[in-house]
Design a protein that fits this description.
- The protein is mainly α.
- The chain folds into two domains: 79 residues, no CATH class; 61 residues, no CATH class.
- The protein is built from ten helices and no strands.
- It starts with a helix and ends with a helix.
């Protein structure tokens, strides 16, 4: 992670030479800024931070702020196949049941919806459901950015009853009669 931050600042120095030295003329100040950026960008992988830096450089003639860098890293999600939080929210709200059988653009939409609660998403207005969904989305996003492979769990299949242990018609009638007698019906 530290190496990624150092590479980002090297890219900034090469691309924004005068602005870079005007903004961070002292090495002590540069060290403080790097620590701040390291802390703020700690939820992203090194690869994503570098992708975000390249996006910021391509999109602006000016040295990016930390806020712009955070936005660029989040925008780089689309390059990795991850949906944005609003599109994942919409997908989770509109998914048919059973949810495990739905066609998900990415497992993060399913996992965030499941953990936020399908009932909440289906029956509450956006201003109530969105914060819960966004919290879960960010949780799963952090895990995905750290390299974890996210998957939608398979739907549990019911098994056919075993012939050896299942009751025959006569046995069921006898059991029903015994139950009625026991309950005085």
């Amino acid at each position: 992670m530290i190496e990624a931050i150092n590479q980002v600042f090297a890219l900034f120095r090469l691309n924004y030479h005068n602005q870079y030295y005007a903004a961070w003329s002292e090495s002590q100040q540069l060290g403080q800024v790097k620590r701040l950026w390291l802390e703020a960008l700690s939820d992203f992988s090194g690869e994503l931070i570098l992708m975000g830096a390249r996006r910021a450089i391509e999109a602006s003639d000016y040295l990016p702020t930390l806020n712009r860098m955070l936005e660029s890293c989040t925008d780089a999600l689309s390059e990795l196949g991850l949906p944005s939080a609003p599109s994942a929210y919409e997908e989770a709200c509109l998914a048919p049941s059973p949810k495990t059988d739905a066609m998900w653009s990415h497992p993060i939409a399913y996992l965030a919806g499941r953990d936020a609660g399908w009932y909440l998403l289906a029956n509450h207005p956006r201003h109530e459901a969105w914060p819960a969904f966004q919290k879960q989305y960010n949780h799963w996003l952090k895990r995905a950015l750290k390299g974890e492979t996210l998957t939608v769990p398979e739907r549990a299949q019911l098994t056919a009853p075993d012939e050896a242990t299942s009751m025959g018609l006569d046995d069921r009638k006898e059991a029903l009669m015994a139950l009625r007698k026991q309950l005085s019906l």
